[in-house]
Amino acid sequence: MARKPAAALRLVDTARTPAGATSVTGQIVDSVTSAIVERRLMPGTKLVEQQIADVFSVSRTVVRQALNQLSRDRLVTLEPARGAFVAMPSIDEARQVFEVRRLVEGGMVRQLAQSIGDEQIAQLRAHLRDERQAVGRADVSGRTRLLADFHVVLARLLGNEVLAQLICDLLSRSQLIALMYQSGHSAEHSQSEHVQIVDALARRDGRTAARLMEQHITSVERNLRLDPRTPDLASVLKPRG
Predict the structure, then answer these.
(1) In the chain, how many domains are there?
(2) Based on the domain organization, do 96 and 209 belong to the same domain?
(3) What Å distances lie between residue 229 and 221, 225, 226, CA to CA?
(4) Looking at residues 166-193, what average pLDDT do you find?
(5) Cross-sheet strand order for the sheet of 46-47
(6) What Cα–Cα distance (Å) separates residue 196 from each residue in 55, 124, 221?
């Protein structure tokens, strides 16, 4: 099955965009988003306007429009007199993102189980094979994209592009959070959880599919370091003997 990266589903904001610049603006937005989803851009990375302009052979004005779009998507932070940086989500934001994902994606698979057909199950099985192969050959970028894409594919099987867009946005922010807080959730574990979800969908068991999806997202969240310990200043600052 031909699939697009998660970022390819992103909607481009054309407001106040000069004629002819929309497609390039979208390309920049998609490129940065893909780099985040595939964990090639780290939180806090400075996005230098001139460097991006040189890569895409456009003016800094077009780059600035793309960065503004990414800022509205909460993937980039714009700081006066300092420039643009890949966002660094707070712990509270991280918890809220995963809470929303549980609510949205649990309901999504519950609904999908009511209407999914054999051909769609076959499409999901094909996606799982791609995931398994990418995990097996240690293709870090490919497996990261495919594991994220799985959630978008589910939304698209419902025929709901608004939902697919929402899932894309949440996944992009989830990847930033995973980078920021050192996720210990392995690709192998995620892949096996995806298999269980598809098995439940194949049985048209919406309740189990929803429970497995919620457990999957909770498992990812629990493997993040979201509870940093407050250091004991006396022990940290005490001179070493």
Answers:
(1) 2
(2) yes
(3) 17, 10, 10
(4) 90
(5) 46-47, 83-86, 76-79
(6) 42, 12, 18
Res 12: pLDDT: 31
Residues 44 and 124 in one domain: no
CATH number of the domain that residue 82 is part of: 1.10.10.10
- Tokens representing 88? 């660094």
124 and 67 in a common domain: no
Handedness of CA 193, 175, 162, 58 (dihedral sign): negative
Q: What is the sign, positive or negative, of the torsion defined by CA atoms of 107, 108, 110, 111?
A: positive
Instruction: Specify the pairing of strand 83-86 against strand 46-47.
Output: antiparallel
Examine residue 37 and state whether it is found in any structural domain, yes or no.
yes
Q: Which domain holds residue 52?
A: 10-86
Q: pLDDT, tens digit, for every residue of 198-233?
A: 999 999 999 999 999 999 999 999 999 886 555 565
pLDDT bin (cut points 50, 70, 90) of residue 138 is: confident
The 10s digit of each residue's pLDDT in 7-27 is: 333 333 333 334 344 588 999
63 shares its domain with 130: no
Q: How far apart are CA 107 and CA 93, in angstroms?
A: 21
Distance CA 86, CA 82 (A): 13
